[in-house]
Here is the input.
Amino acid sequence: DGGITQSPKYLFRKEGQNVTLSCEQNLNHDAMYWYRQDPGQGLRLIYYSQIVNDFQKGDIAEGYSVSREKKESFPLTVTSAQKNPTAFYLCASSMGVNTEAFFGQGTRLTVV
Amino acid sequence: AQKVTQAQTEISVVEKEDVTLDCVYETRDTTYYLFWYKQPPSGELVFLIRRNSFDEQNEISGRYSWNFQKSTSSFNFTITASQVVDSAVYFCAFLITQGGSEKLVFGKGTKLTVNP
Here is the structure.
C-alpha cells in the first residue's frame, strides 16, 4: 500500500543523546515535511524539502537537522541542542504545488 | 502576516447534534489554499478537504460540509448529526508560498468530543 511510514512509533532517549526519526514515503511525492506537535500548540513546522538534496528551515528548526539524499526518505535528527525535545513528531509529504499533504502516524519522542 | 486562527479550543456535544468548527485566516495574497484535517486519537492527520481562493462554492461530503466566505475570511466546517467517531482534533491549515517553496501553516486545532 502507498503511504508514509514513520518509525518507531515510540522512542525513549536519555537527555544529551542525539536521536534520528525515520520517515519513508512510497507515494513518489517531491515535497516532504517535519512537524512537531505539543499539547495545545497545534503543529509547528521544523524543516521541509521540495526536492532531493535541498531543504529549508521551518519555524522551529533550532536543535534539529535533516537530510534528503533520496526522494523517498527524509530523516529528522533531534540533537542534544534541542532544549525540550519531548513531543509528538509528524512527517508529511505532498506532490507539491498547491496540493494537500499526507501524514505518517507519528513518532512520540520522550527524553528522560 | 499569513495565519490561521481557530478560536474554539474545545467543543463538547451530544451525539446527533450539529456542530460547527470555526476557522479564520489572514492573508494579502489573492491566490491561496485552505485545508481541513482530522486527527483522531491514533495521532495520524487525515486530510478532509482543500479549497482554493477562487472557488467559493460550499462543499458537502456526507455529514460534513464546509462554508468558505472570502468576505469574512472564514472557512468553517460543520458536522451534521455528529457521531462518537467524529471525536478528534480538527485542524484548519493555510498553504503559504515563500521563496519558491510551499509550506502548510496550521491553526492550533479544535478538540471535538461527541458524547453518546
User: Anything to note?
Assistant: The radius of gyration of chain A is 13 Å. The first strand of chain A starts at residue 4 and ends at 7. The mean pLDDT of chain A is 92.
